[in-house]
């Protein structure tokens, strides 16, 4: 009987120890207790690893003949873009990130006939990632350039009426795209607009005269701009012009006077003789003229006539300043001094005393204003630089961006 009781105690004691071990295990795993990853003990499920950022670049690696108007687009999934560099020939291409920095898009056109390199860095929970790519843009079948910009003389000072005239190397098909690439900035801004005179010539004119004494910068960001079918701009242009004092001359053909003002103050009074008006061609034109060029001397020949014809003339004149394309100048006329201030006897020009004509010649700038009143012949808006003859409201309708 004693032996039976002793054998029974042994398993009961073992059961108590096992129960205690079970209770101890069930209380583990609280804050700060046990390993951070339950799977490390071999009995739990492993947490999935955070994926590295995935970077995508368009155009794709090795792409060729990429159209310059195409954008470069870089995206990142599972992370954020930290740095995007796109360049050709050491010149970086500008671009913008979206708010989440998961997308970058280039701004402006690409340079034609160029090789671009793209370098990207991205970061995220799965660690940093990098990517790179290269692609080339197409060579245009036809290139668009600027053949001439007026004014373009280095260091030239121009008048307050001066337009900006841009002549292109070939006809422009997509005028809207090209005009958007033309930028005019001034130290003293004033409203202005472009007008297309023909497919190759665009002219910028302000609504009012330029404010005097300032610099105006013109830039044409044509590189990569699609100007028509298979036609692309291949380079950018920029020039700066200096607007001088406000020189405004007022001519009255009835009182035979010319009054010159500089910044609003009278600096010269001149007795003049205008066109005798026996024919339309001998009638001085009314309206706002701009001084265009000068010569000393200038040979003037009667338009449409040859030697021996009635009314034919050939005169050599000094200190001549052109104000239209129909042959009108302000110039010296010693032969008509007796009529200056009294009568109109010229073939349409504004004749002045030699010393005063020389003074005007020496003080003029291209784009100075000469306003003429008193005749019945209006200056045509496209006669020389008669652009101020067209109301600004009508002028800006000639813009490709109008409306």
UniProtKB/TrEMBL annotation:
Record region (Disordered): 30-69
Active site: 331 (proton donor/acceptor), 349 (nucleophile)
Transmembrane annotation, as ranges: none
Pfam families: Big_10 (PF17964), YkuD (PF03734)
Signal peptide: 1-30
Coiled-coil ranges per UniProt: none
Domain L,D-TPase catalytic: from-to ranges: 247-373
Protein keywords: Acyltransferase, Cell shape, Cell wall biogenesis/degradation, Peptidoglycan synthesis, Signal, Transferase
Metabolic or biological pathway, per its Swiss-Prot or TrEMBL entry: Cell wall biogenesis; peptidoglycan biosynthesis
InterPro entries: Big_10, LD-transpeptidase, LD_TPept_cat_dom, Transpep_catalytic_dom
SUPFAM superfamilies linked to this entry: L,D-transpeptidase catalytic domain-like (SSF141523)
Classification via PANTHER family: L,D-TRANSPEPTIDASE, L,D-TRANSPEPTIDASE YCIB-RELATED
Protein known as: Ig-like domain-containing protein
Provenance organism: Sphaerisporangium dianthi
